[in-house]
Amino acid sequence: MKTKEHEEKYFRKIIDSPTGKLTLIASNTALKALLFGNTYHGFNKKNLIYEENDIISKTEKELSEYFKGERKSFNVPLDPDGTDFQKQTWNELSKIPYAERVSYQELAKRVGDIKKARAVGNANGKNPIPIIIPCHRVIAKDGSLGGYGGGLKIKEFLLNLEKHNN
Length: 166
Hints:
Elements: E1 10-17, E2 20-26, E3 31-36, E4 48-49, H1 54-67, H2 84-93, E5 102-103, H3 104-111, H4 117-125, E6 138-139, H5 152-165
Parallel strand pairs: 1-4, 5-6
Antiparallel strand pairs: 1-2, 2-3
Helix pairs in contact: 2-3, 3-4
């Protein structure tokens, strides 16, 4: 186990997007988080280096292409921190095709237990890499948008962006 003095250093960059400021946090090998706004939630500020690295550059380029409607999937390596169940849920989220929507219940079924819709919803809400791990594509069974960590206006924007560019 790592002590606080030996915690890994992460790179951080704040970028502008059509949804507002996004904070990208990456290790040397993978994207760790994409956060709405100028934040570092969940990361020790002392361990953040305010420099760009290859992962951040690639993420910024792919996000730019996504927002222009030129990219429908991402290739940047990901390494989100979470429980095994959360990671399993995020893996299933990543399989939802561009511009498609699934219900929390359907996502729970894909994770392996339709009765775990609430747990899947909680894992969805804790997704540290929204947009790239497309939690915005999950909606309520009745077709309403449900919730979204970045706010419903951003969720609606992302869904409309994908619908328009599909």
